[in-house]
Write a structure and sequence with these properties.
The protein is α+β, with helices and mostly antiparallel strands. It contains one helix and three strands; from the N terminus they run ββαβ. A hairpin with a 5-residue loop joins β1 and β2.
């Protein structure tokens, strides 16, 4: 699974992240940064700062599933 991680920095220096699942293969960095700027004041407090964005690939290897 591929997820886009959008990280913001709070005034106290803590990181808060949002995860968007099933992102496109190569998201445009400028478009992602514009999205994060647009999130300030609406989805996140306006005093937070845009920190970083990353695409994270994860793989699940199920060991067992007892209840189906």
């Amino acid at each position: 699974m591929r997820r886009l991680v959008l990280s913001f920095r709070t005034p106290e220096g803590r990181t808060r992240s949002f995860f968007i699942q099933d992102v496109v293969e190569n998201p445009d960095a400028n478009a992602v940064q514009e999205l994060m700027q647009a999130m300030l004041g609406s989805f996140v407090p306006s005093d937070w700062r845009v920190d970083r964005a990353a695409v994270v690939n994860t793989e699940t290897n199920e060991l067992f599933d007892l209840i189906q």
